């Protein structure tokens, strides 16, 4: 039996069961849940980076957005609150639509 040891969507156990297979699962503590959501965000981002078509890219972005929704919830916020913050930052600092790529800043030592 393959071992996954990863956070999965809520209905995955039900889908596995309907396919006639058995599984083992645990319910995570809040601390472990946040840790696994962070790992899941990296997994979904990597899958997005590796996507080769527009459709698969959008599928992976949808998965990543689902993780962002869950992470917002762990911080006591809604995705609407995250969106408010995104809009505020876009208003103050702009977005990424203009494709600006900064080369260097004089006198800025790192």
TrEMBL record:
InterPro entries: MSMEG_1276-like_NTP-PPase_dom, PRib-ATP_PPHydrolase-like. SUPFAM superfamilies: all-alpha NTP pyrophosphatases. It holds the Pfam family PRA-PH. This is Nucleoside triphosphate pyrophosphohydrolase.
């Amino acid at each position: 039996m393959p071992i996954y040891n990863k956070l999965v969507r809520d209905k995955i156990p039900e889908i596995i069961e309907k396919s006639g297979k058995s599984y083992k699962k645990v319910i995570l503590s809040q601390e472990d849940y946040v840790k696994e959501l962070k790992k899941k965000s990296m997994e979904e981002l990597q899958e997005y980076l590796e996507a080769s078509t527009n459709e698969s890219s959008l599928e992976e972005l949808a998965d990543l957005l689902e993780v962002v929704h869950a992470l917002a919830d762990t911080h006591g916020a809604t995705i609407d609150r995250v969106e408010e913050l995104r809009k505020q930052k876009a208003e103050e600092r702009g977005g990424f639509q203009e494709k600006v790529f900064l080369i260097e800043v004089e006198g800025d030592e790192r």
